[in-house]
Amino acid sequence: MAGGKWTLGIESTAHTFSFGLVDGSGIPYPSKSDTVRPLEGGIHPREAADHHRDYSSELFQDILRSQNLTPSDIGAIAYSQGPGLGPCLRIGASVARTISSALDVPLIGVNHCVAHIEIGRQQCDCDDPVLLYVSGGNTQVIAKLQGKYRVLGETLDIGIGNMLDKFARMQGFPFPGGPVIEKLALEYIQENPAASLEGLELPYPVRGMDLAFSGILTAAQRLIEKGHSLGSVCWSLQEHAFAACVEVGERALAHTGKTELLLGGGVACNNRIREMCTLMATDRDSTSHAPPRMYCIDNGTMIALLGHIELNTGRKTSLLASGINQYLRTDDTLVSWS
Amino acid sequence: MVFIDEQRLHLGAEAEVWRGSWMGQSAIRKQRRNRSWRHPDLDDRLGRRRMIAEARLLVRLYRNGLNVPLLLDCDMFEQQLVMSHVQGKPLIEILNDPSIPDDSVMNILKNTGQSIRMLHRQAVIHGDLSTNNIIVTPENEAVLIDFGLARIEYETELFGIDLHVLFEILGASHPHRKDAIDAIIEGYAACEDIHGPAENTPGGQPVGMQDVLDRFNLIRTRVRYHG
User: Fold this and answer.
1) Using CA atoms, how far apart are residues B28 and B18, in angstroms rounded to an integer?
2) Residue closest to B170 by CA, chosen among B212, B125, B108
């Protein structure tokens, strides 16, 4: 049990290494993070892991300093046990084991995807949402059914964020490309408020509640090659890809009969997808929620929060069971809290 | 349109579904909704295309002897379709009803697989197979409804995805029925034995049963964090 002490959370599933805190009553505090930004290309798992190792001790000092804590104020260590990139996860788990052993405090390994849901619920005060989880690696629609968070639909190839980053990279923009695409799209629509999608049509990759994004990436690149302006293609790309995600979210609401939509993941920082979700939810007498941006992207705080919640249910992770699982499934976590 | 609304059955993602009467008979009215969050060009393209496709496919499938709702009226200006009402319960209710004996449920699931293969033999994918879109009649037959995302196709991949969409929903909504997908596959595979090889369709040879099942198994390994 954390008691009155703080729970430290460690996130290291992909490009970001992050420490976050919740206090003894589970109130979250901002994370201290650093993200790998490759000069070219995507994330190399081992290079990202090297980055995480190099930054871990400095960030640990930063997070303690941010709330004027000493190591003895830490009552438990939570870390992302999966899913994610193996080498990155291993660094987070090693750091977690080290701190836990040194301070002699409980260790708890949690599911990264479930952490996105729980920080969203806590921040937005929603009860039983359908989560539209849109990030680089993941694009999933998740809802709690029969005691576990279950994946109702997901991408059949690449994550939506990955698609946006790849498109940006083809145009020569560095990682992360999503914000650049958002800015160009916004400028385009502000200059052309009556813009038409005619000539800018892209595939609409909805397959029931599943999605796919590789075809839309190729088609968007083809529009560029045909000479369409970058702004117009960025705009069309967002309109098509986000509409597909929001439609899948709506299908999940219709299928489960739930009335709250929650956004999570890095792409949830985008204002256009937030706006679309709000319009969709309002249209069907439901509500749409999105946590502050610092809790949409990968962050240690959400890991600390889920660790705090799970410790309160009596679960903890022994050293022997503290190995990582790259393929940890969302429905492996029994949701015994409410 | 001479349709008298009685009860709204469902607020779907794309349409509102009403039960009522049409020319004195019990029928379903499907009213497409404009989606304000989608750009009007995209909304119009999807809406018109999906509704025309649904109307055409319902007629085609019905004429070819499939057990699908009968299209009664189609109004593209009002964006609504009227079709016959299929009596029965959605599969989701059957799977959630503990009072139905297991062998009966398994039988229904096999019939579901068979209905899906009967559709695929027409070179048509459903596009949105969920346990809400399969109606189980009092005779335990499985009738597929809601062809809003259906299309004529000849690519193996899309038929595999059709099964995968249902597989994901079964896993998420009905985790206690772990063998549900196996029963569906069994019914799907048995269809050729019962009805003989699939006949050619106007666009060519429909994708074969074994090819679809092989592709489905491949797609299962492709998504994130499969077991």
Assistant:
1) 6
2) B108
Q: What is the pLDDT of residues A35-50, one digit of tens each?
A: 998 877 778 999 999 9
List B81's β-bridge partners, or say none. B30, B74
HSE-CB at A14 with a 13 A cutoff on CA atoms is 19
- Out of A197, A254, A278, the one facing B13 most closely (by C-beta) is A254
Does any CB of chain B come closer than 8 Å to the CB of residue A224?
Answer: no
Q: Could you tell me the pLDDT band of residue A172, with boundaries at 50, 70 and 90? A: very high
Contact present, A245 and A272 (Cβ < 8 Å): no
pLDDT for res B172: 87
Per-chain mean pLDDT for chain B: 93
pLDDT of residue B13: 83
Strand order in the sheet with B3-11: B3-11, B15-22, B25-32, B80-84, B71-75
Q: What is the pLDDT of residues A266-276, one digit of tens each?
A: 999 999 999 99
Residue of B nearest to A330 (CA): B225
Alpha-carbon distance of A19 to A29, in angstroms, equals: 10
Rounded distance, CA A231 to CA A224, Å? 10
pLDDT of residue A1: 40
* pLDDT of A306 higher than 80: yes
- The interface predicted TM-score (ipTM) is 0.85
Residue A83: cis peptide before it, omega within 30 degrees of 0: yes
Helix (H, G, I), strand (E, B) or coil at A227: coil
Q: What are phi and psi of A109, to 5 degrees?
A: -90, 130
CATH class of B89-226: mainly alpha
**Per-residue CA distances from A296 to A119, A131, A250, A264, B194 (Å):** 9, 12, 20, 5, 52
**Active site members of B:** 128
| Chain B neighbors of A253, CB-CB under 8 A | 13
Beta-ladder partners of A153 = A141
Domains B3-84 and B89-226 in one fold: no
Superfamily of domain B3-84: Phosphorylase Kinase; domain 1 (3.30.200.20)
Domain ranges of chain B: 3-84, 89-226
Amino acid at A303: I
